């Protein structure tokens, strides 16, 4: 079994990105700018947003976090987005999800300028992505593809099973695996015989949001197992969707939690912001 070290790969890629950022600044005097908008005080979102800000600054980016009260109205949020859409020094705008229940997520995502939508959640970017002309790719699936590449795992011809069907992870992950010529099944909490379906997988990606949900009964000997889960156990410890200790006995490759997919998500978000900045400058 090989443990896929997302933390190490993320550190390497972020170092390369920092070098590219220095070069860009020397060339044109501009650094990529990422603004993250957080509405409310969801504890997990607070941690994610802090990590994004820290990594953006470490890469040499301009970074801003806009923290809005949970009681903010949708109109107020749309006005904040409109401001950053117009501001030339910000190349990436990310609205942290989930939003408070009184907001219309679709309307909010639609308000972000697609050329600054570094999450790739705007319908225009989703449409381009699904039709095979990607501009912005959702960060978590993009990070998983980088991990597979790093470890020499080619999905072509393989059976891939994605457990989870969210717009953020499950659906775009399935599209990337399909694009890489895997045969893809999207399974989920309502799939019948889920264990049996999962056991067919050469590559099993799990984003179901339930701690240690995937046990060894879901895993074929030699499978590659990717764990997107971020759950807290009864002691507050961060755990994945995969029961790592038992599944690692069967898997050929497996990502840990923490230190697997999570750090790659941030890395790809920064990379997309860098690319958005270059497109803004007409440099790529
Ligand atoms: N919440 C959980 N993951 C994500 C993500 O990738 N982007 C945003 N905007 N919110 C999230």
Automatic annotation (TrEMBL):
GO molecular function: methenyltetrahydrofolate cyclohydrolase activity; methylenetetrahydrofolate dehydrogenase (NADP+) activity
Family indicated by similarity: Belongs to the tetrahydrofolate dehydrogenase/cyclohydrolase family.
Superkingdom: Bacteria
Residues that bind NADP(+): 164-166
Lineage, top ranks: Bacteria, Bacillati, Bacillota, Bacilli, Lactobacillales
Organism: Streptococcus zhangguiae
Assembly information from the UniProt record: Homodimer.
Protein's name in the database: Bifunctional protein FolD
Domain Tetrahydrofolate dehydrogenase/cyclohydrolase catalytic: 4-119
GO biological process: L-histidine biosynthetic process; methionine biosynthetic process; purine nucleotide biosynthetic process; tetrahydrofolate interconversion
SUPFAM superfamilies assigned: Aminoacid dehydrogenase-like, N-terminal domain (SSF53223), NAD(P)-binding Rossmann-fold domains (SSF51735)
């Amino acid at each position: 079994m090989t443990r896929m070290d997302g933390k190490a790969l993320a550190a390497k890629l972020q170092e390369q990105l920092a070098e590219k950022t220095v070069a860009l600044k020397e060339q044109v005097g501009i650094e990529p700018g990422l603004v993250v908008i957080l509405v409310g005080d969801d504890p997990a979102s607070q941690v994610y947003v802090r990590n994004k800000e820290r990594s953006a600054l470490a890469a040499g980016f301009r970074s801003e976090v806009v923290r809005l009260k949970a009681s903010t109205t949708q109109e107020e949020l749309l006005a904040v987005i409109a401001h950053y859409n117009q501001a030339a020094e910000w190349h990436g705008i990310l609205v942290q999800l989930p939003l408070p229940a009184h907001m219309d997520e679709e309307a909010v995502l639609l308000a972000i300028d697609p050329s600054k939508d570094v999450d790739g959640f705007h319908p225009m970017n989703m449409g381009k992505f699904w039709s095979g002309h990607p501009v912005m790719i959702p960060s978590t699936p993009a990070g998983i593809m980088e991990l597979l590449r790093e470890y020499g795992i080619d999905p072509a011809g393989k059976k891939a099973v994605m457990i989870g069907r969210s717009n953020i992870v499950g659906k775009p992950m399935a599209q990337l695996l399909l694009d890489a010529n895997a045969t893809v099944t999207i399974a989920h909490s309502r799939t019948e015989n889920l264990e049996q379906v999962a056991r067919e997988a050469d590559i099993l990606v799990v984003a179901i949001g339930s701690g240690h949900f995937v046990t060894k009964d879901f895993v074929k000997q030699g499978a590659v197992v990717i764990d997107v889960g971020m759950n807290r156990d009864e002691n507050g410890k961060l755990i994945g969707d995969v029961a790592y200790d038992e599944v690692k006995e069967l898997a050929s490759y497996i990502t840990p939690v923490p230190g697997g997919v999570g750090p790659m998500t941030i890395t790809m978000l920064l990379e997309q912001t860098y690319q958005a900045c270059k497109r803004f400058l007409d440099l790529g």
